[in-house]
């Protein structure tokens, strides 16, 4: 991208170079984005030719985080939820199986939706852009985007549309990598091992927008949302590139430490690997 999505400034400085792709920070508002020009609508992790999926990752490793979300945010006895970018449908499945909520999903990849329908037996998951869905306005209580917002070059269009789908007081939930922490980890890896051509340190081609607490909340504000609130949820119980149980235990230990620090600082210090933000549509 050539300019900042939050303030439209084209003045930036490089904070990391991932094998020839600069990742830059806006000099005016601090938003971070990749210089890689990604298509507005692409299938991301699902656009390969391989028909197999790492179900250990997409299913088993995510069960804890989905359970934590449901326990934290779906306290009402019933409601209506929309998961945007639902992938293989495991989150929609978790909501349907463990609550009395109505859950729907939209996913741009037809391959992923085929899996959700055939393997997960989901009839409320649909292929295509949610913006073209024709869903009625003010019809959802909660809308979720799990690891989606960082992939979208121009997120204002999507979030403004989702704003219309939420009922008054409805909740938008965004999960995305916590960029300052991810940047520190990437720099440490390069310092210790050098830049490796086959390592996606910050996913520069896929993560075209990278968020901090301040900039993610600002994006929501610009789209009409209010009351930004961060929490620290369970991590995905898997470590990329490793099958070690010790690595998973280390990840859990880091999660507990960051959650304690987050709570003791009243949410001011967030060293967790991931940002979990809720925003509300005004009443």
Written account of the structure:
The protein is an alpha/beta fold and 283 residues long. The chain has one domain: Vaccinia Virus protein VP39 (Rossmann fold, 3-Layer(aba) Sandwich). It is built from eight helices and eleven strands. It has a seven-stranded mixed sheet. The chain has a four-stranded antiparallel sheet with strand order 1-2-3-9, covered by helices on one side. Strand 7 (140-146), helix 5 (155-165) and strand 8 (166-177) form a beta-alpha-beta unit.
Radius of gyration: 18 Å
Mean pLDDT metric: 93
Residue ranges: pLDDT <50 for 5 or more in a row?
none
Largest sheet: 7 strands, mixed
The CATH superfamily turns out to be Vaccinia Virus protein VP39
Pfam family, one: Methyltransf_23
Keywords: Methyltransferase, Transferase
GO molecular function: methyltransferase activity
Protein name: Methyltransferase domain-containing protein
Please sum up the structure shown:
The protein is of the alpha/beta class and 283 residues long. It has helices spanning 55-58, 63-73, 90-98, 110-118, 155-165, 179-193, 213-222, 245-264, and strands spanning 12-18, 21-26, 32-34, 80-84, 102-107, 125-127, 140-146, 166-177, 209-210, 226-231, 274-280. 31% of the residues lie in helices and 23% in strands.
